[in-house]
Amino acid sequence: MTLDAPRESQTIRLPAETLSSMREWAVAGTGLTAAARVRDPNGRTAFVKNDWSDGWVLPGGAVERDESLAGGARREVREETTLDADIVAPLVVFEQSYVDESDGKTAFTAQYVVYDARADGEIPDADRLGETDDEIRAARWFQTPPDALHDGDLLGQYLE
């Protein structure tokens, strides 16, 4: 996959059990995650809180076998916010190494692509969002990135 976007490296250290649960996606599946920095006409950005992160994240998730990266980003934005996003262009590609935190060995690699996107509309209450009832804990528009931003050190420069 070749995308015209900056590339960054990211190491994700997780317990062996968590890595094992992700292996099918990474090895037998696509090993791709797509998200979007969705902005509205007022310059606000959409963020969500989900069941796996400690803070706010961009809407996104695993890309399925039968869809493009941009299509995966569009689908995930819709599932997590109900917004119909116009996916514009890739902002950054994170080359991810998933490492076993107990022994430091790389279990697998993956890619996380963040797209620039545009959308307009209201974001409903979290109980109407996500594929499962408890997947999305909160979702809303922010004028500036929230303080509690998951991976803010990596994403910060791409959210301006």
Describe it for me?
The structure is a single chain. By secondary structure, the protein is an alpha/beta fold. Helix content is 19%, strand content 38%. The chain has helices spanning 16-28, 69-81, 152-155; strands at 7-14, 32-39, 45-50, 60-62, 86-100, 106-118, 136-142. The chain has a five-stranded mixed β-sheet with strand order 1-5-6-2-4. A two-stranded antiparallel sheet has the order 3-7. A hairpin with a 5-residue loop joins strand 5 and strand 6.
| Average of per-residue pLDDT values | 90
**Beta-strand percentage?**
35-45%
* Number of distinct beta strands: 7
Shape: globular
What structural class do the secondary elements suggest? alpha/beta
Number of helices: 3
Order of helix and strand elements from N to C terminus: EHEEEHEEEH
Strand arrangement within the widest β-sheet reads 1-5-6-2-4
pLDDT < 50 runs, ≥5 residues: none
Helix content: 10-25%
Brief synopsis:
The chain is an alpha/beta fold.
Keyword list:
160 residues, 19% helix, alpha/beta
Write the layout of secondary structure elements.
Elements: E1 7-14, H1 16-28, E2 32-39, E3 45-50, E4 60-62, H2 69-81, E5 86-100, E6 106-118, E7 136-142, H3 152-155
Parallel strand pairs: 1-5, 2-6
Antiparallel strand pairs: 2-4, 3-7, 5-6
